[in-house]
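dumping this here so i dont lose it
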């Protein structure tokens, strides 16, 4: 049973966003359910569609606002929903701040894309297991 990982991406660089979506759809079987370029748009969509995403990938520096605001707005997400940061500024201080906001993982855009793909694959397997358990219970 193929269950695609419903992924929302908050990234203001169109080239990075489209390349990321293409790579993750091909390599990690994600389904891009939406995108945002600003903090306000990201927070609004993620909260208004609270049960319609499994993974949010958030850049920290956005056209308007900050990815940190998006992360803070999603602190009380469902237990199976994952928040990850993909940033050029994955410094130890940034990683610590993200951890304080309940982020599940931080990836550096310059050298950790493969790790992000692996993370998505692992999380999609977790979601498949949960979907199977739910269908068995019915």
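and the seq i came up w/
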């Amino acid at each position: 049973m193929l269950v695609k990982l419903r992924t929302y991406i908050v990234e203001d660089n169109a080239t990075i966003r489209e390349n990321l979506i293409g790579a993750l759809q091909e390599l990690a079987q994600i389904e891009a359910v939406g995108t945002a370029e600003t903090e306000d748009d990201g927070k609004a969509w993620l909260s208004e569609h609270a049960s319609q995403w499994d993974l949010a990938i958030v850049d920290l520096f956005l056209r308007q606002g900050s990815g940190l605001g998006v992360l803070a707005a999603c602190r009380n997400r469902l237990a199976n929903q994952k928040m990850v940061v993909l940033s050029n500024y994955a410094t130890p201080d940034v990683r610590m701040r993200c951890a304080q906001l309940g982020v599940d993982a931080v990836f550096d855009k310059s050298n950790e894309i493969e790790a992000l793909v692996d993370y998505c694959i692992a999380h999609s397997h977790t979601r498949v297991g949960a979907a199977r358990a739910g269908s068995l219970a019915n």
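Residues 113-137 form the longest helix (25 residues).
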